[in-house]
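Service request form, structural biology core

Requester: graduate student, group of Dr. S.
Request type: structure prediction, single chain
Budget code: on file
Notes: please return the result as structure tokens.

Sequence provided:
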Amino acid sequence: MSPRSRVTLIVVVGVLTCGLLVVGGLVGYVVWAQRKVSRDISYEVTGTARPTQLSYAPKDDQHSRVTVEKPTLPWSVSFHTETMLKVATVAVFLAEGETNTVTCTLRVDGKVVATETSTPGAGRMVLCSEPDD
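Core staff response, request fulfilled:
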């Protein structure tokens, strides 16, 4: 076998190997992406503060938010979702100088996974989100 043929053979084997790795990775990703987790999500916001706005991740779309202007407390929403990512978050925005408190609570399948309470004068947002496991 000539040196030129040997180089050609090595290049062809390398390209085929890379192609198989790419195809295998894509198949693995497609299988992973199709697995969905069925869950019940509940967001609750309570307190004596008057939020200017709240925002939460809707049922099956991790890329969008639902916004509620000037929500009346107590406020809550619950829904069933099937998604492959942990995207449950609720953010509560308070007016500048708000001295009353607000608490957000996030439940997944009835279990409290996050709860946060505002501290007067410490910030204008309270955020509850699923912890990374």
